[in-house]
Write a structure and sequence with these properties.
Blueprint lengths: L24 H19 L6 H8 L3 H8 L2 H8 L6 H9 L6 H14 L4 H10 L3 H22 L5 H21 L3 H5 L2 H17 L5
Helix pairs in contact: 1-2, 1-4, 2-3, 3-4, 5-8, 6-11, 7-8, 7-9, 8-9, 9-11
Length: about 210
Amino acid sequence: MSTTPAGSDVPAPRPRRRRGPRRDGADTRGAVLEAARARFAVHGYDGTKLRDVAADADVDVALVSYHFGSKDGLFAAAMALDVNPARLVEELTREGVDGLGERLLRRLLGLLDADRGAPFVGLVRSAATNDQAAALLREFVEREVLVRLAGAIESPDPELRAALTGSQLVGVIMARYVVRIGPVAAADRETLVAAIGPTLQRYLTGDVAT
C-alpha cells in the first residue's frame, strides 16, 4: 500500500523511455534511414557507426542489423541504391576472376541502362562537384567494393589492380550517364563490353605495366 498521503503533490514516477523496437516497423526503418543519411552526410562512411545511427533513431542497434544487415547494406538503403555495389561485386567474384572484367561491366551497364542504378549515378555526379559527396563515395568504394574485388585477385598488387578496375568503371559511368559523351552514350551494351571488358580483365589478371 502506498504511504503517500492523499492529496500529496509528490509527482508520480515518470515512465522509462522506450529503447527497444518501435511498434510500427515501417516507422522504425524510416527513422533509421533518416538518422543514417544525416550521419553519412556529416561523418562520411568511415566515421558512421551503426551504434550511433541506432542511438540517433532511438532504437536498439540489433534492430539496425536486422533491417539492413551491415553498414554497407545501410548505406545502400540510405542512398536509395536499388542494388548494393558491394554485394554485387561479392556475387560476381564467386565465379572467379576468369572473364570477371566482362561480367562486371555487363552487369553494371545492365543495371544503369535500366535506371535501377540512377541514385548511384546521382552520387557519382555529385562527387564531381562536391567534396563531401566525393569523400563519402570514395570511402564506401574503397572500404566495401575494392576490398572485396582485391580479395578475389590472385595476381601481384591486388589493391592496385582493384583500384584501376574501379577507376575504369567510374570513368564509364561518367562518360555514358553523367557527361553523356555521344558515341559512348549511344553505343549498345555489348559493344562497350567487347571494347572495355578486355582492359578491365588486363587490370585484374594481366600485365598492368603494358
